[in-house]
Every structure is written in C-alpha cells, then in structure tokens.
Amino acid sequence: MNNIATRPVDTVIAAAPEFLADRITVNDALRQQHARGEDTSTPTLPDAVAFVETTEEVSRLLALCNQHGVPVVAFGAGTSLEGHVNPVRGGISVDLSRMNQVLEVSAEDMDCLIEPGVTRQQLNEYLRDQGLFFPVDPGSHCTIGGMCATRASGTNAVRYGTIRENVLSLEVVLADGRVINTGSRARKASNGYDLTRLLIGSEGTLGIITKVRLRLHGIPEAMSAAVCQFPTLASAVETVITVLQMGIPVARIELLDEVQMQACIAYSKLEGYGAQPTLFLEFHGTKASVAEQAQSVEAVAVENGGSGFAWATDADHRNRLWKARHDAYWAAVAMKPGGRGIATDVCVPISRLAEALLGAKDDIEQSGFSAPIVGHVGDGNFHTVILVENEEPATLAAAWELDKKIVHRALALGGTCSGEHGIGLGKREFLEAEHGLEALAVMRSVKQALDPRGILNPGKIFRN
Ligand SMILES: Cc1cc2nc3c(=O)[nH]c(=O)nc-3n(C[C@H](O)[C@H](O)[C@H](O)COP(=O)(O)OP(=O)(O)OC[C@H]3O[C@@H](n4cnc5c(N)ncnc54)[C@H](O)[C@@H]3O)c2cc1C
Q1: Domains, the chain, with CATH or none
Q2: Across 130-207, where does the E strand assignment appear?
Q3: Which of 223, 274, 320, 329 makes the best surface tag, with the fewest CB within 10 Å?
Q4: Are 85 and 73 in contact (CB under 8 A)?
Q5: Is the distance from CB of 309 to CB of 387 less than 8 angstroms?
Q6: CB-hemisphere CA count at 13 Å for 174?
Q7: Tens digits of per-residue pLDDT, 281-314?
Q8: Ligand 1 center from residue 275 Cα (angstroms)
C-alpha cells in the first residue's frame, strides 16, 4: 500500500480540472511567470497556476482551497511593486487576465461593468467612440482588478480621484466561495458598511474581485498640455503648492527632477528641454477655461523663476509628452543597464511637500545611489526610483535603508508610507508606526472574519 501523504495542494490540483479543465497547470515556465511582480522580492514558485474565466470557476476554486487550507494569490498583470503577487506560502496563483470583457456601458449614466482583467488602455480604446473615458492611469499595463486591489492612482488623480473614487461597486468571491455584490449603480448611498471601500486596497487578502462597476467621465471639450522648467526643485514645488492653493483645477501636475528629466530626454527622445526640475501639466475644460487655467499657472510659474512655459493643444504633442511621463520608470531603469529600480511611494499633505521632497533629495545624495524623483505632486505623492546594479542582499539592504529614511520623514510630516503602490511585503514594517497597534488589530479582526483559514494572499499587509 502506498502510504506517502498527499499534500493538500495536490488534492486541489487533482480536483480542479473538473471545472477548470486544462486551465490549471504546474508548467514550470508559467509558475516562474507568477513567482513575483515588478519587485525585488525573492521569487517563490506557486504550486500551480489557474487561468480562471468565470466567477463560478473562481468560486469553486476558492471553496476547494478553503476546504483544504491551500493559499490562493490573485494575479492580474503582475506589475505591482511591493511583492504583492509573490506566493510566499506556495499554493495556487489565480490568474484573472482572461476575465477581460467589457460587459456593459451606459453612456446615459456614465458607468460601465467590466471583468477584472480589463486594462485601462483596453477600456479607453473601447470607450473612445462614445465620448467617455476612464481617468485612473497608472504608468503600467495593469488590470483594473489589480488597480482596485492596490487602491491605485496615476497622473489624473488630482482632478478625477483615485480608483477608490471611481468604483461604484464590486462583485467579490470570498474565501469560502460565496459571491457578494458590494453596492448598486447609485452615485451615492448611505446604506450600511461600505464593503466596496473595504475591498479596495485589500490586496487580494479579503476576496477576489470578479466584476467592477466603474464611474466614467465625459471627454472634455478641450485639453492642453504644458511643460515648464525651473532653476531648483524648491521653486517647482512652490509653484505646485500655489497653483493648488489658488484652486486652479489642473487635471494633471507632475514633477520630474533634473535626474529624471535627463533620463526621459534620453529614453523618450524629448527635444528642446534641459535636464532640470520640470513640471508637466494638463488642463481640461472648455477652450476658454483651458486657456485661462494655462495663463494663470504660467503667471505663478514665472513668479517662481520658471521658464520656457509652453502649452500645446494638438493631440500628438500631448500624447508624446504623457507617454514620456508614463515611461518615466523605464527611462530611469534604462540609466542603469542590467540593473533594477526600487520605487518608493510616499505621500504627504501638500503643505509639507517641499520638506518631504527636499529631504528625500538630501537622503539620496548621502546614500550614494542614483535615484531620480518623479511625482504626482498635485496629491503630495512622489516616487524615487532607487537604481541598483544587482539584487545582492547587501545592495538591496542599502536601498531599503534609503527607502526607510524617506518613509519615516513622510510619516513624521503627517503622510503615508504608500500613496498608491500598496503594502504587499515591502511596506509591512511601517504599518504599525502609521496606524498604531489598535487600528492594526481592527484590520486583523476584519481579515479573521472574512478569511478565518488565512488562505487569501497570506503573508501580505501583516507581518505574520
Ligand atoms: C512602470 C510601472 C509604473 C507604475 N505606475 C503606477 C502608478 O502610476 N500608480 C499606481 O498606483 N501604481 C503604479 N504601478 C504599480 C502597479 O501597476 C499597480 O499596483 C497596479 O494596480 C497593479 O495591477 P496588476 O494588474 O498588475 O496587479 P498584480 O500585480 O497582478 O496584483 C496586485 C495585487 O492585487 C491583487 N489582485 C490582482 N487582481 C485581483 C483581483 N481581481 N481581485 C483581488 N485581488 C487582486 C494581487 O493579489 C496583488 O496583491 C506601476 C508599476 C510599474 C511597473
């Protein structure tokens, strides 16, 4: 008699083909692709990868995994930056990229229902002819399910909000396989606990999102992009603060320091700009209001020593500029061929932005690393991309020390360790300092109530 014990995960892998057919696999290359995201955590192979296509499949798989105590890690596009998708305790990586249908669009109500594997680029392509757009725009090809799970944002958040403000409701499969809907299509509701917001930012630790109802926005009548360069980082930041305090409704206001600008000039072939602190801006509205906003910002910029303020309404020029901004991370990484970038992600109240940014700049200089700075400064959120030559433990530890310094300053200034990338593995150590023990205990109680067996993305957000 064969008495070799079967692992619980093997029981799941053996039973799942009943409803997943050959879409659950132990293929080595596919497991490698799901071993980590765009981060520097040590890769861990999942025991299997399941390519789900329907809510029912997700529900049956989770019920099975829950029954056998097998970890489940939801996987969108794997672009997260803090070790989120690394299956540190093995188990099944549930890949949602094939659930990528736009199910409904209502032009009258300006909302839509999509599957979680849809990307923002795909959605905007789909919406274009209807005069609508979805504004939340991380600089990656990520899924909207992943964006919900990480509470993502992007360059438009200063005007249109983050994913949190643009989700009306979710369909979610809970750890035991139950399927819930978290809300209606109403634009506002005062109707009990807000499960939508609880799930947004939960990083796959409370449930798997299988449908998303999103708010959409009308494509503005006029849009114009502007670029302005500054003698110092401080003068650029001063411009941002004044523009926001004056209530000029900028759609985008992004800062690139001189190192990041140098990287973008080289990578995106941006001609006519110098390697100096630079603001990229965009204005949305009527033709007249766009011109008025641009003139008001120009006046503030000039007062702060800004020069070369140039604004353009033609779509090609605008798209080229914003493509360069969205490629900023890759431009930074290209400065260190064969190396990697570690993105930091603090966010502070806007009045403390100058202290946080200039402090980070000093920290970078002292560290000896090259680390371009780029930021969604309209929200007080900025990133440094710490460039490392290799992933040796000593190199990574030194880079994390720099990240820690930047985070601790942001916390001291009333800010957060993560404006948009999330906690994953990388930011767990800051949660106690940021929220306090009691608030963290409440979060753990929520996790315990929704996932008592701890199968959903274990090891993330909490340190144990
Ligand atoms: C070049 C670059 C630029 C970036 N720019 C930005 C930026 O501007 N703003 C920003 O916010 N982020 C940015 N990011 C980070 C990243 O793109 C976001 O965190 C994104 O939201 C992750 O989506 P994803 O589909 O890749 O999710 P994944 O990396 O696959 O997963 C992320 C987390 O979400 C969970 N998850 C995924 N799908 C689901 C689901 N359907 N249900 C439940 N949980 C799920 C996973 O378990 C994991 O915990 C950038 C990353 C890169 C590489």
Answers
A1: 8-95 (3.30.43.10), 102-218 (3.30.465.10), 222-329 (3.30.70.2190), 336-427 (3.30.70.2740)
A2: 132-133, 167-173, 179-181
A3: 274
A4: yes
A5: no
A6: 16
A7: 999 999 999 999 999 999 999 999 999 888 877 8
A8: 30
Mean pLDDT across the chain: 96
CB hemisphere CA count around 423 (13 angstroms): 21
| Sign of the alpha-carbon dihedral angle for 95, 101, 104, 105 | positive
The whole-number pLDDT of residue 2 equals 54
Q: What is the 3-state secondary structure (H, E, C) of 410-426?
A: HHHCCCECCCCCCCCCC
Probe residue for ligand 1, chosen from 33, 34, 73, 79 as the CB with the greatest number of ligand atoms within 8 Å:
79
In whole angstroms, give the CA distance from residue 130 to residue 218: 9
Give the predicted TM-score (pTM) of the model: 0.96
* Phi, psi for residue 279 in degrees, rounded to 5: -105, 130
Average pLDDT for 225-244: 96
Mutate to test the pocket of ligand 1, among 57, 80, 163, 323 (most ligand atoms within 8 A of CB): 80
94, burial (CB in 10 Å: exposed 0-12, middle 13-18, buried 19+): buried
> For residue 454, which of 199, 83, 180, 73 has the smallest C-alpha distance?
73
Residue 126 to residue 60: CA distance in whole angstroms: 31
CA–CA dist 359, 354 (Å, integer): 8
Residue 120's identity, in one-letter code, is: R
Q: What spatial distance separates the first Cα and last Cα of the chain, rounded to whole Å?
A: 39
Instruction: Judge contact between 388 and 400, C-beta under 8 A.
Output: no
From residue 35, give the alpha-carbon distance in Å to each of 9, 117, 321, 339.
17, 19, 34, 19
DSSP 18-35: HHHGGGEE--HHHHHHTS
Closest residue by Cα to atom 13, ligand 1, is 138
Measured distance CA(112)–CA(118) in Å, rounded: 12
Element at 236 (helix H, strand E): helix 233-245
